[in-house]
């Protein structure tokens, strides 16, 4: 799962584009063994949440091939400007720094700010 933030002024255009994703972009995803790809929008926070299944054997290589696909790069040139990345230093999709923030990190990589074990002392 990954996330970014949609700029409010682009909400309608972003949804319109994604209602009819360019065929070349879909073909690049299929070649990269991506299935069940979805993007959800949580309007109160303008949050975009993306999920997909990967069925290939070399994720890094497949993602590199997607990033090198000319049609996908044109798509990103349009859609990245409609979003704000949560990743410090991100310059756009397909760059060295990921544009979408991966949301499902192992708990050991996250700072715990609260825990309730279920016991209270009364």
Description:
This protein is α+β, with helices and mostly antiparallel strands and 122 residues long. It has one domain: Alpha-Beta Plaits (2-Layer Sandwich). 30% of the residues lie in helices and 21% in strands. It is built from four helices and five strands. Strands 1, 2, 3, 4 and 5 form a five-stranded antiparallel sheet that branches. The chain is globular and about 65 Å long. It holds the Pfam family rhaM. GO terms for molecular function: racemase and epimerase activity, acting on carbohydrates and derivatives. InterPro entries: Dimeric_a/b-barrel (IPR011008), Rham/fucose_mutarotase (IPR008000). This is L-rhamnose mutarotase.
Write the layout of secondary structure elements.
Layout: E1 2-6, H1 11-18, H2 23-31, E2 34-42, E3 47-54, H3 59-68, H4 70-79, E4 83-84, E5 101-102
Question: What are the defining features of this structure?
Answer:
122 residues; alpha+beta; Alpha-Beta Plaits; 5 strands; 30% helix; globular; racemase and epimerase activity, acting on carbohydrates and derivatives; L-rhamnose mutarotase
Structural class: alpha+beta
- So how many helices? 4
> What percent strand?
15-25%
| CATH architecture level-2 label | 2-Layer Sandwich
Main sheet characteristics: 5 strands, antiparallel
The domain tally reads 1
Mean pLDDT figure: 85
Low-confidence stretches: none
CATH class: Alpha Beta
Shape: globular
Distance between the termini: 40 Å
Query: What would the CATH topology be?
Result: Alpha-Beta Plaits
Write down the Rg.
Answer: 17 Å
Number of strands: 5
Helix % is 25-40%
InterPro entries: Dimeric_a/b-barrel, Rham/fucose_mutarotase
Protein name: L-rhamnose mutarotase
GO molecular function: racemase and epimerase activity, acting on carbohydrates and derivatives
């Amino acid at each position: 799962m990954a996330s970014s933030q949609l700029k409010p002024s682009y909400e309608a255009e972003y949804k319109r584009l994604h209602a009819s994703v360019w065929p070349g972009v879909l073909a690049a995803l299929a070649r990269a063994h991506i299935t069940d790809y979805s993007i959800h929008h949580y309007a109160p926070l303008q949050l975009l949440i993306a999920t997909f299944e990967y069925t290939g054997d070399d994720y890094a290589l497949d993602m590199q091939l997607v990033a090198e696909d000319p049609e996908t790069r044109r798509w990103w040139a349009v859609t990245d400007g409609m979003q704000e990345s949560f990743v410090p230093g991100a310059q756009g999709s397909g760059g060295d720094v990921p544009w979408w923030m991966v949301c499902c990190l192992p708990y050991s990589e996250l700072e715990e700010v609260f825990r309730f074990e279920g016991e209270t002392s009364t």
